Amino acid sequence: MGRFLDLTLSGLTSGAVYAAVALALVLIWRSTRIVNFAQGGMLMVTTSLAGTVLGHGGSYWLALAVAVAGGLVLGAVVERVLVRPVEKRSPLDAVVVTFGLLVLLQGLAGMLFGGTPRSYPPAFSIAGFRVAGHQLLFSPNDVWVILVVLGIMAALALVFRHTSLGLKMRAAAFAPEVARLLGVRVGRMLTVGWALAAVVGAVAGVLIAPSTFVSPTAFDATLVFGFTAAVIGGLDSPPGAVIGGLFLGLVLGYVSGYFGSDIVTLGALVVLIVVLMVRPNGLFGHGVRRRV
Predict the structure, then answer these.
(1) What is the CATH classification number for the domain harbouring 170?
(2) In the chain, which ranges are E strands?
(3) Does 289 fall in a domain?
(4) Does residue 292 sit within a domain?
(5) What's the Cα-to-Cα distance from 106 to each of 16, 46, 115, 192, 258, rounded to whole Å?
(6) Which residue of 12, 174, 200, 284 could cross-link 234, Cys pair, CB 3.0 to 4.6 Å?
């Protein structure tokens, strides 16, 4: 029973990070109907910037602020410079651009920050809580990770449902022609969507960095699992991204704990196939035709 509890708590922590990456992917999909395969590279760059701040004596919170600011700028620049020229072309063009951007960011990171994996300190203690004489595999830092992801989810829900900015972003994504007639600057809203998504990704990178080593390709697996979580939850649904991430984290935690870490990727594939066989649009997705 103790092992099951440890795996559950550990899975929730990993799932929270997958949920944050899934949220970033969903935000971009909702605004431009593009799956951003460069998201892993973007959050790697912002996390590397944060690591540089720490390496020069900055605090964890300053590094987090730098990562967020870097994500905001990077997301806006990518949308304006790389995505906007191809967003009205064939969907395949946008996919190629994001893959190319991923390779470019990984190459630049290798030149600027080096290819040697670097450790990243956690915000709080990673020593597990002790309950009834048993030390759980769940620490204050894990609580921080889960609370941050839930906070991001709540903040995004507030923005999209209860602010004029959120209404304009939704209108620009789902009915751009009508939005333009109503005076909405659709291009600006799309830029804001990419910037917000990059900020969420930057936070996710800082959250997961203490459990891995930061390097140009360190977050590739995180992107794969985040994308899987987004598809499971439904690419149109931010709540689905969170639930899909937590669900995937739990499943992979059990698979790793009971069957070995070597088949974790296979476990994610099986979960994805089963969910799509039952719900082709994801658990919370809508059966509407989308660009792929």
Answers:
(1) 1.10.3470
(2) 130-131, 134-135
(3) no
(4) no
(5) 24, 12, 9, 24, 34
(6) 284
Total number of domains constituting the chain: 1
CA distances from 264 to 225, 257, 277 (A): 10, 10, 20
Q: Which of 126, 142, 127 is nearest to 8 (CA)?
A: 142
Alpha-carbon distances, residue 19 vs 78, 111, 143, 238 (angstroms): 22, 30, 15, 9
Question: Which residues lie below 8 Å from residue 266, measured CB to CB, with a gap of 6+?
Answer: none
285 assigned to some structural domain: no
Which candidate, 195, 174, 197, 194, places its Cα nearest to that of 184?
Answer: 174
> 243-266 pLDDT, tens per residue?
999 999 999 988 888 888 788 888
Tokens of 58: 């900055």
Whether this prediction's pTM lies above 0.85 is answered by: yes
| Token pair listed for 18 | 């997958």
- Residue 200 located in a structural domain: yes
Instruction: Give the range of the structural domain holding residue 135, as residue numbers without chain letter.
Output: 2-115+123-278
| pLDDT tens per residue, range 130-142 | 877 777 778 899 9
Q: How far is CA 123 from CA 109, 126, 129, 265, in A?
A: 24, 9, 16, 28
Length of the chain: 292
* Integer Cα distance of 165 and 191 in angstroms: 12
- The span from the CA of 121 to the CA of 141, in Å, is 10
What percent of the chain stands above pLDDT 70? 97
